Amino acid sequence: MKDGSYHKDGEFTPVSWEQAFDVMEEKFKTSLKEKGPEAIGMFGSGQWTHLGRLCRRETVQGWFPL
Questions:
Q1: DSSP assignment letter at 64
Q2: How much is the pTM?
Q3: What are the backbone angles phi and psi of residue 45, rounded to the nearest 5°?
Q4: CB-CB contact of 22 with 12 (8 Å)
Q5: pLDDT tens-digit map of 50-63
Q6: Is residue 4 within 8 Å of 19, Cβ to Cβ?
């Protein structure tokens, strides 16, 4: 995937990765503020390696220090 897309008004609009991450940050912060940390989850599969799970854990904890 080279370009990000944002679903707005029923259509996907090309956006930069910086814009895409800004939208995700805004949505995560809104969910945390309105519903608390239990509202945020992450889904993975059994295909993830141990290193992948470790990186995911470190990334999520870095984003959402609880």
A1: S
A2: 0.55
A3: -120, 170
A4: no
A5: 777 767 766 666 66
A6: yes
Distance of alpha carbon 34 from alpha carbon 6, whole angstroms? 23
Give the tokens for residue 53: 């799970």
Contact 12, 25 (CB under 8 A): no
The phi, psi pair for 6, rounded to 5°, reads: -125, 130
The pLDDT, as a whole number, for residue 34 is 94
Q: How many helices (H) and strands (E) does the chain have?
A: 2, 2
Beta carbons of 24 and 40 less than 8 angstroms apart: no
Where exactly are the structural domains of the chain?
A: 4-63
Integer Cα distance of 40 and 66 in angstroms: 11
